[in-house]
């Protein structure tokens, strides 16, 4: 019998940039530079909120937290910081991150965190539109907050 992989309960944050392909079509180098800056800020915020970045894929980031409140605090603080950074950028060049959060069981394999919910998180983040005022919604929950 094969040993079961270690599992734990974790809050997972998945974020990607809305319209990234369109943005790179307008300004590939500038968009890529700004994405690097934003991902660096995101990674720093994850650490400040007791999480760890576990994967990057193009314009996306996946992070794990021990608590849902830390994941939510990270999402709110990054959206606030990104809104400030975007305020000085032309509207059609702004990097708008969509963020999905999930609390569930994950598999720990080597240094990776594997979650069955990654596709669900991607779909959840794709349904969130962050206007310039910045709204944060918890799908299936009761949390709603203006983050501007």
Overview features:
alpha+beta
Considering DSSP H and I runs of 4 or more, what fraction of the residues is helical? 25-40%
What's the helix count?
4
The average pLDDT is 80
Task: Name the quaternary structure.
Answer: single chain
Silhouette:
elongated
Number of strands: 7
Radius of gyration: 16 Å
Which blocks of ≥5 consecutive residues have pLDDT under 50?
126-133, 139-148
Order of adjacent strands in the largest pleated sheet: 2-3-1-4-5
Main β-sheet, in a few words? 5 strands, antiparallel
The topology string of helices and strands comes to EHHEEHEEHEE
Q: In what range is the share of β-strand residues? A: 25-35%
Structural class: alpha+beta
Amino- and carboxy-terminal Cα gap:
53 Å
What can you tell me about this protein's structure?
The structure is a single chain. The protein is of the alpha+beta class and 148 residues long. The protein has helices spanning 20-26, 28-48, 68-86, 118-126, and strands spanning 7-17, 51-57, 60-65, 97-109, 112-114, 135-137, 144-146. The strands form 2 sheets. Strands 2-3-1-4-5 form a 5-stranded antiparallel β-sheet. A two-stranded antiparallel ribbon has the order 6-7. Helix 1 crosses helix 2 (28-48). The longest helix is centred in the N-terminal third of the chain and has 21 residues, at 28-48.
